[in-house]
Design goal:
The complex is a heterodimer of chains A (about 230) and B (about 180). Chain A is of the alpha+beta class. Chain A is built from 6 helices and 10 strands, in the order H-H-H-H-H-E-E-H-E-E-E-E-E-E-E-E. Chain B has 2 domains: about 100 residues, RNA polymerase sigma factor, region 2, helix turn helix motif (Rna Polymerase Sigma Factor, Chain: A, Orthogonal Bundle), CATH 1.10.1740.10; about 80 residues, Arc Repressor Mutant, subunit A. In chain B, helix 2 packs across helix 4, helix 2 crosses helix 7 and helix 7 packs across helix 9. The N and C termini of chain B lie far apart (about 45 Å). At the A-B interface, helix 1 and helix 2 of A face helix 2, helix 3, helix 5, helix 6 and helix 7 of B.
Chain lengths: ~230, ~180
């Protein structure tokens, strides 16, 4: 009802406004009949309700479990199953690289150093940093047969090696059974063998030679130096 | 037993088209009275009411049960009346059969309705017709339909303070126009 206590209009006028109009029964029946006749030919109105997961999203801003599952499925189909597999494989490669040490130095978290590590090209996804490294770098196995040596270092001496790594010394591990000092590391693809040298017992320098090529490490990516030490 | 509006709506949505007749019978007369006061023409008011019920039926699924059905229906009715008033402004088609004549004819069938009341009703109809449409709408909703200002605001989409102002001005105008009738 009206919430204004003060009568703005005289009561008599208000009564006239409120009183029902005189009803012409025939006319009223005709009007209502016309309405119902028109209603009969219209389609029955239907109340379409949204699925519960959608309504929960609208109410609370969260998805129901079934809705979340459906959303995840849609997302998977949208991004592509192969892309997700690629991501998993690449993660595995990154873990391998992270676990690889040379002496006390971690090469890098993103550079796979094991030969068994495969390059995974992610279809439809942005290339990661180590993909780019694989394009320009390669893994080289350095080996020195020196059973009598007590300490062997690998020294980079040229500017063609890793940026910022000139003059770096890497400690090389020894296989006690075979007397082979061996290490694998990542070098620029076009680095020449002369850029590396072994330093034995902090005194002798043994240039790295390769029988396959004078300019590079060769297709086997292996540099082997032999010494009588 | 009288069924609630919400129950009837549920039945209609369930496919019982004939149940809609109960809603039409329940609100037809009030809707015609409102439209007649607003449009000043009984025939045009009936057309507007028919449009209103058809539109209400078509969009019945959008009615929320927590709302009053009458208020929801009146929102449609107010819009239909506004549309007709707008069309009348663009294409003036004077209603030949005025509400005064309509009421006078109808009153002939009511022998106990005295002449003074009939005369006052005619004068009131003329005074309402002289009001601006927005003021007429506000005063009819307030006094004829008995809606509160918040309810009027919900129906018309106009702010409460603006509605109060419209009702106040409309009443001033009506009192001025009907001074002779009231005090006579």
């Amino acid at each position: 009802m009206a919430d204004t206590p003060t009568p703005l209009l005289p009561a008599e006028l208000q009564d006239r406004l409120r009183e029902p109009l005189p009803v012409d029964a025939a006319r009223r029946a005709r009007s209502m009949g016309a309405i119902m006749a028109a209603v009969q030919v219209l389609p029955v109105p239907r109340r379409w309700s949204l699925p519960p997961s959608i309504t929960r999203w609208r109410r609370r801003g969260v998805l129901a479990p079934a809705g979340a599952l459906a959303f995840g499925l849609l997302l998977t189909l949208w991004t592509g199953v192969t892309s997700l597999t690629d991501v998993f494989s690449r993660s595995s490669a990154a873990v391998l690289a992270k676990a690889e040490f040379i002496g006390d130095t971690v090469i890098t978290r993103l550079v796979p150093v094991a030969e068994e590590t495969r390059l995974v090209t992610a279809g439809g996804m942005r290339r990661a940093l180590h993909d780019t490294l694989y394009d320009t770098m390669r893994i080289v196995r350095f080996a020195l047969r020196a059973p009598a040596a007590s300490r062997v270092m690998l020294v980079e001496s040229a500017s063609t090696t890793l940026p910022g790594a000139q003059g770096t010394r890497f400690a090389v591990a020894r296989d006690l059974a075979s007397g082979l000092w061996e290490m694998r590391t990542v070098v620029p693809r076009h680095a020449v063998a002369d850029a590396f040298a072994f330093v034995v017992d902090d005194a002798r320098r043994v240039p790295v030679r390769t029988p396959m090529s004078e300019q590079s490490f060769g297709p086997r990516e292996q540099a082997l130096a032999d010494t009588s030490l | 037993m009288t069924l609630s509006d919400a129950l009837i709506v549920r039945r209609v949505l369930g496919g019982d088209t004939e149940a809609f007749r109960a809603l039409v019978e329940r609100y037809h007369d009030d809707a015609v009275r409102y439209a007649t006061h607003l449009l000043g023409c009984h025939a045009e008011a009936e057309d507007a009411v028919q449009d209103t019920f058809l539109r209400a039926y078509r969009y019945l699924a959008s009615y929320q049960e927590q709302d009053k059905f009458r208020a929801w229906l009146w929102r449609i009715l107010v819009n239909r009346c506004r549309t007709r008033l707008g069309e009348r402004t663009r294409r003036p088609e004077p209603c030949d059969v005025s509400v005064i004549t309509q009421l006078a004819d109808a009153n002939a069938a009511a022998p106990d309705d005295d002449l003074d009341r009939t005369f006052l009703r005619e004068e009131l109809a003329q005074a309402l017709a002289a009001l601006p449409a927005d003021q007429r709408e506000a005063v009819v909703l307030h006094f004829t339909e008995g809606l509160s200002y918040p309810e009027m605001s919900a129906v018309t989409g106009t702010g409460v303070s603006a509605l109060k102002m419209r009702v106040h001005r409309a009443c001033d105008r009506l009192r001025t126009l009907l001074t002779d009738v009231i005090h006579g």
